[in-house]
Amino acid sequence: QDCHPQTIAVVQTRANSLGFKTYIGNPYQQSQQQNFFAILVQYPGSTGEIHDLTSVVTVAHNQQALLTVATDLLSLVLLKPPADFNVDIVIGSSQRFGVPMGYGGPHAAFFATRYAFKRSIPGRIIGVSKDHQGKIAYRMVLQTREQHIRRDKATSNICTSQVLLAIIAGFYAIYYGARGLRLIAQRVHRYTLLLIAGLEQLGYRISNKIYFDTFIIHTPNRAKRFISLAQEENINFRLIDHNTLGISLDETTTRQTLRQLWRLFTTVTVDIPDITVLDKTISECIPDTLLRHTDFLQHPVFEKHHSETEMMRYMRYLARKDIALDRSMIPLGSCTMKLNAATEMQALSYPEFTNLHPFAPLYQTLGYQQLFDELEDMLCDLTGFEAFSLQPNAGSQGEYTGLLVIAKYHAIRKQAQRNICFIPASAHGTNPASAVMAGFKVVIVACDDDGNISLQDLKDKVIKYGNTLGALMITYPSTHGVYEPAFRYICAIIHQHGGQVYLDGANFNALAGLCKPGEIGVDVAHLNLHKTFAIPHGGGGPGAGPIGVLKHLTAFLPDHPVVRTVNPARSEHGTIGTVAAAPWGSASILSISWAYIAMMGASGLKQATLHAILNANYIAHCLAPHYAILYTGKNNCVAHECIIDC
């Protein structure tokens, strides 16, 4: 129960679709719960309280369950590391390491676990090896992006990660090193100690006994009043209930901030505490048993680059080792990059966009709300859909979200037995992985020699599965790089037998300005804004995978436990839940796509699509005398990419 509400909501959504039950309680007190396979705790907790994890580790391992700890990287500079408690998995966000809040993102998460579980980690692991000359070389030692191999048997559907943000966080750690990070963490914690000591001196009761930078203050029947007073001073508190507030400090806190806060909680006739006096009298609240006694960031790289010049040179040194779009090309049509023009990127340098907290009061976020509304309208115009949800953080998460919407639609109509998802054999591996995660059973539909869906096999399977057919997941143009000639007919067959059509929008580069999915038989689709609409692809991220739906599905789009206005069309039957911790996903990068679409206009977007198709066909034409082009469509043409047989 001391996890963040958005974390709980995301876990509940994921668990529900997989048939798992969730129980919210106090694992430090209720040790009699049986038949659980996992426990999730926050360290420090959502209330700011720091718990000794020893007891909950014992409870979990006595039941042969795994313990996951969600944590804050900056706090771990001072706190005992979770691994020292013998926990199994540690997760969290690296946002505090040099990445702006951005009204919710983008941020890079991290996932750390025991060596024994290394083959279950989604992604790739880079290790140290030697080249043929005996020099140190870094190489991929383990690839577990397993969707391409295991498909519907994969343990994750993660595809686009947040590589660019992870690099930023990594450089932040390199720039400050262990000593610099320790100074930052100690400063934040010291100011929290001072603030609490002053509030207690003013007569307020603080719930927390052990804390890092967050605490709960009791203000009987006055919580909303203090919220209003603070907002007049450009300060936001967390409203717990009418008696309780949550306060968090960060690296920007100063002594003047403390004085300002104390003045808020008292009257002009009462003197505020003296910081100098308090600083001499306060004592540490974290016991020695919960403090870190081990070194961290001991690799030499964290000791070398602590000036701006050294850091810039090091970054350039590493960049020269990469093959990137500034000096080469990436031959993958679906990931065709658009120009990251300065105007598109400019908003990311505005503090009004980058420094906004994702749960700031809506009246403080009117600019973002206008951006969301206009971007959603733009995407609706381009796709023919009724509404969009911006919450999914990547294309794979859009797939998952869209399929949840379809499942919810069937459930509301008392047709929950419709749990079969047809997926063509040509589909990207993430498709079947997403379908399983959303609670569907995957049935593969064969392709013919031309790379298209076999209509006969589709008809046979539609008859075979009857009223259990839930959805068809299809990519258009197909992953084979051709336009499916019978696309409308395929959609009609699915609809005639009670199913819904999900379009994987990874190849929208070949549709934008030419075709609207919502008008040719598609019920729901995701778009990869980082592919089609100019967001830098940064080695794999940041991604954004909003989903669009027709009118009959709008009520089921994601909502949020903190910002309840995310889905204004939500119905009395409820939504699918929450699929990302931030209400509008990686909000700050949406400004890039907004600017790209606004500047290109309808004619410009159409021209970009035509150029993508023309370029792919030019390449195919030039290579055809030397290599076999595996799949072509009408007039011996391809879509925006081609597959050659080497």
What does this structure look like?
- The protein is α/β, with parallel strands linked by helices and 646 residues long.
- It has three domains: 130 residues, Type I PLP-dependent aspartate aminotransferase-like (Major domain) (Aspartate Aminotransferase, domain 2); 121 residues, Alpha-Beta Complex (Aspartate Aminotransferase, domain 1); 258 residues, Type I PLP-dependent aspartate aminotransferase-like (Major domain) (Aspartate Aminotransferase, domain 2, 3-Layer(aba) Sandwich).
- 34% of the residues lie in helices and 14% in strands.
- The strands form five sheets. The protein has a seven-stranded mixed β-sheet, sandwiched between helices.
- β1, α2 and β2 form a beta-alpha-beta unit.
- α4 packs across α6, α11 runs parallel beside α17 and α12 crosses α13.
- The protein is globular and about 85 Å long.
- 41% of the residues are buried.
- The mean pLDDT is 92.
Q: Tally the beta strands.
A: 19
Query: Order of strands in the sheet with the most strands?
Result: 11-17-16-15-14-12-13
Number of separate domains: 3
> Which stretches are poorly predicted, pLDDT < 50 over at least 5 residues?
none
Please state the overall shape, judged from the principal axes of the Cα atoms: globular
CATH class division of the largest domain? Alpha Beta
Structural class: alpha/beta
Number of helices: 17
Mean pLDDT over all positions:
92
CATH architecture verdict of the largest domain: 3-Layer(aba) Sandwich
The name of the CATH topology of the largest domain is Aspartate Aminotransferase, domain 2
